[in-house]
Amino acid sequence: MTRYPAQPIGPTALKELRDVDDAGRACVPYTATESDAGSPLRCCLRPVRECDRIALVSYAPLRRWAAGTGAAPGAYDEQGPVFLHAFADDCPGPDADPQRYPFDRPGALRTLRRYDARGHIVGGALFEIPADATAGFDAALDEAFADPAVVLVHVRAVEYGCLHFAVRRPR
Asked: Block means of pLDDT (10 residues each) for the chain, length 171 residues?
């Protein structure tokens, strides 16, 4: 069982992104091909399967989080590409009780970017997913949240910089 729940893109944001993305472009659904298979879906935190109906959209995770918290990330606001199921009916939603972190392939590199309540970056760490991925993520997130200023962590792919999932400070 994971110690920190991975946060997918929320339902309100998904509904909006399936219409117009955070760069103002219309969502363009397509059928996933073999080359898309394995890419991370941020709606349900599962890999893309060939023949899924998906869309690649621009997403501003910090901006959307800040809008709900009153934070002002300023220059730290950014947007990037994410895959999602193109239609709500195509998405099974995230696992209710995940036993492991999403996209936890041992040997893969991730960046854990830490944010404070203002939405400003207050640190980060390069993380290579170990063989025991769950314990590794738990330890890396323990370290991130050991700083009392950290309220949000973005887990990102090193290769592309895109968001894999977010983790909020436990209450």
From this structure: 94 97 98 96 96 97 96 95 96 84 96 97 97 97 98 95 94 85
Q: What separation in angstroms does the CA of 51 have from each of 17, 26, 35, 134, 164?
A: 20, 21, 11, 29, 21
Instruction: Give the angle 109-93-41 at the CA atoms, nearest 5°.
Output: 35
Distances (CA, A) of 151 to 2, 30, 33, 65, 167: 18, 36, 37, 11, 9
The answer to whether 77 and 59 have CB atoms below 8 angstroms apart is no
Q: How many helices (H) and strands (E) does the chain have?
A: 3, 7
Assigned token pair, 137 = 């993520």
* Nearest one of 44, 46, 42 to 56, comparing CA atoms: 42
Residue 44: name the closest of 3, 4, 6 by CA. Answer: 6
Q: What are phi and psi of 82, to 5 degrees?
A: -140, 150
